[in-house]
Amino acid sequence: MSMIKSPEQIALMREAGRVVANTLAVVREAAGVGVSLRELDALAAEHIAKAGATPAFLDYRPRWAAVPFPGVICASVNDAVVHGIPDGYRLQDGDLLSVDCGAFLQGWCGDAAVSFVVGTADPVDQALIDATDAALARGIDAARIGNKMGDLAYAIGGAARRAGYGLLADHGGHGIGRTMHAEPPVPNDGRPGRGIKLTEGLVIAIEPMLILGGKDDYYHDDDEWTLRSANGRRAAHSEHTVAITADGPVILTLP
Ligand code: MG
Ligand code: MG
Predict the structure, then answer these.
(1) Considering the entire predicted model, what is its pTM?
(2) Which CATH topology does 7-251 take?
């Protein structure tokens, strides 16, 4: 299927994106000390169903996955970078939580993630989150007609590196539309001037994943899904689904 979407299709993707953004807002609001990740997952499931949408992550099994994903959201706490399973863990004061959510509405997918601290934030963690959000903003700003994918990747990776953080360089964003993960790959690091040309109607998920301590290394948890930082330090993940239009980048995953 073509990577290029019409304005009408982008408008439909905006509606799917709205469901995702509103779900993330509901989860964030509820994510207090003592609340379990499973409770947050149930809340997300309820919100997505109420909106007439379908969760994109539940039972998702890409080729590389040993088992289907068991949750509606990914809930990644502290050293978990991405793909955390929403289990019975109860949030503690100062935990850094990354929530990723995907949903289908009328056959179109939205995908977004947000990181925040539960309760009292260590300034070091807040700075990491701010840097991740800033890297995402840089990436979005580079999602313009005439740029190449390498320009966008460099915008993300350069921002993270300059700020002294590690990042998951071999994981990144993706094209999105009728399926959640589609062509083209959207790397989190790269070289300016390389890669495919960004063209009108391309819709991509942009998602920097930053790690404290400046190292990129990570490992797979025994649960087959969670990616954890090798140094045991905290990580953050921010994501938006973005359309490249004649008027510049348009974020589709907003409330
Ligand atoms: Mg996501
Ligand atoms: Mg994604």
Answers:
(1) 0.97
(2) Creatine Amidinohydrolase (3.90.230)
